[in-house]
Every structure is written in C-alpha cells, then in structure tokens.
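Lab notebook: predicted structure, single chain.

Context: the supervisor wants predicted structures on file for every construct in the current expression panel, including those that have not yet been purified. This is the next one on the list. No modifications to the sequence; it matches the entry in the shared construct table.
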Amino acid sequence: MSIDRLVEEIRLRSEEAIRKEADRQRAEEARIIGDRDRRISAAQADSKRRAEVDIARERAQKLASAKLQARKLVYEAKERQMNDSIAGTRAILANFTKSDDYPRVLKRMAATASERLGKPTKVMGRADDATLLKKVAGSNYDPTPMPILGGLVAESADGSRRLNLSFDELLRLREDKVRDLLAR
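Prediction complete. Output recorded below exactly as produced.
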C-alpha cells in the first residue's frame, strides 16, 4: 500500500467522520429546535389557559360585585321607602293627637296602665296633653313634659315598674309589623 493511498484513505475516513459529525450536529440542532418549539407551544397554551382562568375569575368577581351592588341599592331604596312610610305614620299619629278621638285613647291608656301597674299610678306625657292627662289621672299626673309624639308613660307608685304607652314606643315595638304591612 502506498502512502498516497494511505493518505487518501485517511482523508476519506476524515471526510466520513466530518459528515457523520455534521449529520449528528444537524440532528441535535433539529431536536433542540423541536424541543424549544414544544416548550414555547406549551408555555403559550399554559399562558392562554391561565389568562382564560384569570379572565373568568375576574368576570365572576365583577358579576358578583355588580349583583351585590344591585342588591345593596335595592335594599337601600326599600329602606328609604320604609323610613319615609314610617315618617308618614309618625305624621299621621301626630295629627291623631289633634283629633276628637285622642282624649278617649288617653283615657283607655291610663285605665290600662292602672290595671297593669296598680293604683296609684303616676302618669306622664307631653306638655300639649297636660290638661287632658290631669283630667284623666288627677293628682297622679306628673307635669314633667316627656319628649314623645303622643300617648303616655305610667309608673308604679314605688317607681319599680314602668309602662311606656307612648306612640313612639308603640311604633318602635311594632315597627317590624308596620314594615311588613308597608312592604306589601
């Protein structure tokens, strides 16, 4: 074998090794690019899914917030209407104190107070009702004016028990029933 042939064979083997290494390099590069593309696709799909989840969550939160705000506005409107109606009821009661039936009501209230608390019963009321209450309660009338809409407040002789029959208190005690009636 000659040296030329040996050199030629080494050259051919070297070219073959270089070609194989170039093929392996291209295959590795294609694998790396494919892996990169898969990762990018997976990241994009994950980002899209997360964005959709975030959008859905935000949409649900905004919708829930809007529903809550709507309920709150409806409640506030109903509450304003109720308060206006109760204020109207207070006005009706204030007008009732000027009617001819009011003295009879005060007389019945005083009788109920005496019946429940026993005699003698101290009776108190508004300054405007002083003459009526003095007539109804006699010497048991306490002239100290009470800041009430109408009606009376009675107290047992020893001061241990009190019966509040003022329109304010009667309305307060029955406010839930009044609200139910007004809501219909």
